Amino acid sequence: MKRTSGISANSRRVVLCAVVILAVTSASVAAADEAAGPFGVTAVVGATAESARVGALFGADKAGSLSGNHFCTASVVHSPQRDLIVTAAHCIDSGGDAGLVFVPGYRDGQAPYGVWKIGKRYLPDGWAHGQDEDSDVAFAVVDELGGKRVEDVTGSNRFAAGVATGATAVTVTGYPDSREVPVSCTNRPVPHSATQQRIDCPELTGGTSGSPWVNGDHELVGVLGGHEQGGSTPDVSYSVVLGREAAELYKDATGG
């Protein structure tokens, strides 16, 4: 199942089963470490410093009418220029020059941290030359807004290639296309293959492509996508194993 709902998702969106909703407290969304819990439960995310780093993607033509029009998820990662987001390659490879915007902390049609125009996109060769599912990760630069850079407004997670799958639990945060708030789930990833990792989390439906997998050290160690562009069911999700190709792509995107 493709986890991207498409830029025109609002016109063909199907209402899916409701996500399990927990009380929004520090206990309701587990930190990604071995002592935390509950694992494998999907919950609505409160407005926190951590959730501000995650946002929804929209077509630029929807910038003035956000409600119901998001189609993928992205998140801010640290970079020297403080202007970089990461998502799944299939989310921003539109096959043309269609404009996109990133709305960090999006909630109920509102943009509490602004609407940021996406500029240059960085796609790995494996995706650009054949849409290889083992290359389904991408970076994009976002333009300044009001003289500020996105990382200075929202904070960021650190991009971490080469972390062993399942070394720690991770928290996956994203925007299902049937909801106007972000949800998250914490669990321990397991290998699917040498190049793909998977996680068991319920109700990560269309729109969650590009969701960050973040460990307890605020390191981004996965991006929802990859195998079957995220998974064929909403209860099992995938990510590319972030290895050499992803590290080189990050280097390109940061000018390093």
Helix content: 10-25%
Measure the end-to-end span: 35 Å
Can you count the beta strands? Answer: 15
Helix and strand string, N-terminal first?
Answer: HEEEEHEEHEHEEEEEEEEH
Radius of gyration: 16 Å
Strand content: 25-35%
* Assembly state: single chain
Main sheet overview: 6 strands, mixed
Structural class: mainly beta
* Overall outline: globular
The whole-number mean of residue pLDDT values reads 87
Biggest sheet strand order reads 1-10-9-13-14-8
Show unreliable segments: 8-36
Number of helices: 5
Q: Can you give keywords for this protein?
A:
256 residues, 5 helices, mainly beta, 6-stranded antiparallel beta barrel
Structure description:
- The chain is mostly beta strands and 256 residues long.
- It has five helices and 15 strands.
- The protein has helices spanning 9-12, 89-92, 125-128, 150-154, 244-253; strands spanning 42-44, 54-59, 72-77, 84-87, 100-104, 116-122, 138-142, 158-159, 170-174, 183-187, 190-191, 196-200, 212-214, 219-223, 236-240.
- The strands form three sheets. A six-stranded mixed beta sheet has the order 1-10-9-13-14-8, with no helix packed on it.
- A hairpin with a 4-residue loop joins β11 (190-191) and β12.
- The longest helix is centred in the last third of the chain and has 10 residues, at 244-253.
- The N and C termini lie far apart (35 Å).
- Residues 8-36 have low confidence and may be disordered.
- One of its GO terms (biological process) is proteolysis.
